[in-house]
Queue: 4 jobs
Job 1
Amino acid sequence: MIEDWKNSGNYFSWKGYDIFYKTAESENETLLCLHGFPTSSHDYCKVWDALGERFSLAAFDMIGYGFSAKPADFSYTTFDQADVLQALTDHLKIKNLHILAHDYGNTITQELLAR
């Protein structure tokens, strides 16, 4: 099941690091799914299809998690994770979105709101 998740996703480069993400596009508004600690976007695998009936979807593995790069010499701050997320939304050309988050994803959401 996790290999299916990986194979249905993509990567984009952020500061030379590969960041894994998965999307399901439709004509609906976008729902961004943010994972917690110490997991990955795979947290949403069991609800992905049901959520996709109502929203376009986007999820990513924060740097250091899941299928994203895990550089040894990296600070892994909340600010870095929010930067990666903003780069992803730019890469996907997402202008407006809803957020579904839990655990560490809530912290990233708070940083985005503060910006």
Job 2
Amino acid sequence: AMASEELFRGVPGVGLVYPQGGINSFQGATVRLVGTGQYCTPTIYLDGTRLSVEMTASLPMEVIAPKSTIDAIEIYRRPAEIPVEYGMTQPGSGQGGNCGVIVIWTRTR
């Protein structure tokens, strides 16, 4: 039973970060994008709803969307790749506004 983060492993421009201790450390990796040349926290859309970067930055992907629920994933590594419907950067999100977007569709939608 792989965690949902495994779906991102080996994808160019995508990095997995494992927490060093803390309450989330046992739940798996958070997903980062390296489209800008450094790790950044992507904006995540879950079934069309934009999630808060502040909320998702430290949440393991398995917590955001358990692998058993994931139907499809779209990855836009850098702002230039983001389709217009996902191109709204979040004010006050700091690096999130300069990062890419990950769109997750689940079977429960």
Job 3
Amino acid sequence: MENNKIIITISREFGSGGRELGKRLSDTFGIPCYDKEIIALIAKEDGFDENYVAHMSEKKIQSAYPLTIGHQFITAMNHEAEQAIKIAIRQGKIIERFAAQGSCIIVGRSADVILEKYSPFNIFVYANREVKLQRCKAYAPVGENLTTAELEQKMREIDKNRAAYRSFLTDTKWGEKETYHLCINTSTIEIKRIAPYIAAYVNEWFKQKQA
């Protein structure tokens, strides 16, 4: 597949391990995986603080969505909504730039919609409540000491905003099985154990596609 691109997108519930899966598939295929790197690049190229970009790109895009119908602006936007739209557009362009450069894996950011013309392999990762809570606690940022109730609220809010961001781009629903080529439940088995089998599945899919 030397002359053909392998482009994989990973959508995921918060705490389900989508980022880890992306990194492991990246190691297996020897191709770059982009996640927070997208935020860092926007911040660097546009002169923003990374935390601000992250906040606006995933947590505030829904504030702009009610101002659009059929993806056309119908009224004046406040500054926050305008910035959210601008960052969303920049994010999409950077994701397209990565795909145009070659094989890659994009985690989150509705990349499957943005890269539709590249016919990527689209994965959705999910897990049960208990496993997601355990993973969130294990990988919590230094100094973050949320209670279980607070962490559950954070999980719900982030997933809700991810769904809203997708709604801004397309009519297909976030997490709807028909939208993806493979849906993976990480509740009962370690990602490192299933990653090789997922990679084999993805590899076979691309072989069939290119046959």
Job 4
Amino acid sequence: MFTAFTIAVLVILFILWRTMVIIPMREAGILERLGKFKKRLDPGFHVLVPFIDRVAYRHEMREQVLDIPSQSCITRDNVQVEVDGIVYLKVMDPEKASYGIGNYYDASISLAQTTMRSEIGKLDLDDTFSERERINESIVREIDKASDPWGVKFIRYEIRNITPSQHMMDTMEKQME
């Protein structure tokens, strides 16, 4: 009798646990009913239909920072430079961020890298150092246009380092001497 009562209590607790969900203030959830999008869950307490509803995705709604790894770029005057940066983004539409793309983190990094290579390739080596602000603005403008279907807004991009190749550094030092 005691075992049956314990099992019944555990089953009821499990069902109740599957019924309630709390979305924290800084997040948004995506509710799926039987595997299909039902609605966006805003912060707060929500009651679900057990075993039919589930929170499929949770997205951070605050501004996020992604580190863009260093990569080799070639300037317009055929000088190889290593460039890395930081991109600031924010999820604006959790539904698009969930279903518009598989992984917006990786896609954002790849898109920022290719756009950075393209923008660096339009400039001479001297211009890459003096026009950082213009490069940052054009990168943000381009990746923001491309990422609109993802429900992600790119707020800003910052180039951290621009490092010419060692051969170029040696040549510049010899020229200064």
